[in-house]
Amino acid sequence: MFSIKTILRKRLRPLTRQRIRSLLVTFLNLFFKVKLDDLANLYGTDKNYKHDYTKYYDMLFSKIRHKKIILLEIGIGGYEKSNLGGASLRMWKKYFKRGLINGIDIYDKKKIEEKRIRTFRVNQTDQANLEIVITKIGSPDIIIDDGSHHNGDVIKTFMILFPHLTSNGFYIIEDVHTSYRDSYGGDSKTLENKKTTMNFFKKIADNSNLEFFKKELLDKSIIKTSIDFIWFTKGMIIIKK
Ligand SMILES: C[S@@+](CC[C@H](N)C(=O)[O-])C[C@H]1O[C@@H](n2cnc3c(N)ncnc32)[C@H](O)[C@@H]1O
Q1: Whether pLDDT at 1 is above 80
Q2: CATH class of segment(s) 34-240
Q3: 92, 124, 143, 160: residue to mutate for ligand 1 pocket, most atoms within 8 A of CB
Q4: Catalytic (active site) residue 149
Q5: Of 12 and 79, which is predicted with more confidence?
Q6: Which of 15, 102, 153, 216 has its CA 20 to 30 A from that of 181?
Q7: What residue's CA is closest to ligand 1, atom 27?
Q8: Phi and psi at residue 211, in whole multiples of 5°?
Q9: What pLDDT score was predicted for residue 25?
Q10: How far is residue 44's CA from residue 190's CA, in Å, rounded to a whole number?
Q11: Which pLDDT score, from 0 to 100, does residue 8 have?
């Protein structure tokens, strides 16, 4: 027996399905305050049903939901298929009603652009092109890394983009369980490997006390910026500048 959902998935093109989803969300928004969890599920990003990240996002962002924020997400989704992806960008657009939503992907995603959603084809470790993106969109208030999840890439991208984050901004890294996967440049055998995402960010935790560093310590610290806090949750690292 086919469900209506399966029939629609088979018969309708991805873009048509996306438009129907958007209309449904707009309609629901008229009568209910749709929660971030529901927006994630409606648009089809795995940030709720698989990873349970949206509860943390809502905790962080509910107070700034109505501000005209600039958000940059690395990893748009759909991989090489140019008309696929964009689920989380659409979710953020509905959540931040005045927000400017930007996505970076290694593949071209121009087809998924719409009002308040811009995309850029850039490798997340390409410093020169990342900086061009920043000059085009302005300093982001929120940066989310949901790209390659390769440990080396995650660290390099953070070192390039964190200085461009606004003060009080949030930098979030998703899927940090890849820290313990060899295929992602993580380490499944030891917790001591300094090259993993988790071990790199454990060191950043010191920067919440940067004002107490002596000069020699500051010279040796990984980043010279003070941070407000860093949270480690299952699968996610959240840093507030
Ligand atoms: C998990 S998907 C993103 C899903 C999306 N954020 C969502 O929640 O709907 C990961 C995306 O990262 C992109 N990606 C992989 N390596 C990348 C890199 N080095 N630079 C930029 N994007 C990359 C892939 O093409 C893919 O579309």
Answers
A1: no
A2: alpha beta
A3: 124
A4: yes
A5: 79
A6: 102
A7: 77
A8: -65, -15
A9: 72
A10: 35
A11: 67
CA angle 211, 62, 64 (to 5 degrees): 65
Torsion over CA of 41, 45, 51 and 53, rounded to 10 degrees? -80
Cα–Cα distances in Å, from 233 out to 49, 103, 105, 172? 16, 24, 25, 11
Q: What is the pLDDT of residue 49?
A: 76
- Which residue's alpha carbon is nearest to atom 4 within ligand 1? 77
For residue 66, how far is its CA from the centre of ligand 1 (angstroms)? 27
Other Cβ atoms closer than 10 A to 169: 20
pTM reported for the whole predicted model: 0.90
CA 206, distance to chain mean position in Å, is 23
Owner of token pair 């060899």: 182
Mutational test site, ligand 1, from 146, 157, 160, max ligand atoms within 8 Å of CB: 146
Q: How much is the pLDDT for 115? A: 96
CA of 107 from ligand 1 middle (Å) equals 9
CA distance 20 to 24: 6
pLDDT, tens digit, 9 for 90 and up, residues 44-78:
888 887 888 999 999 999 999 999 999 999 999 99
* CB of 86 sitting under 6 A from ligand 1: no
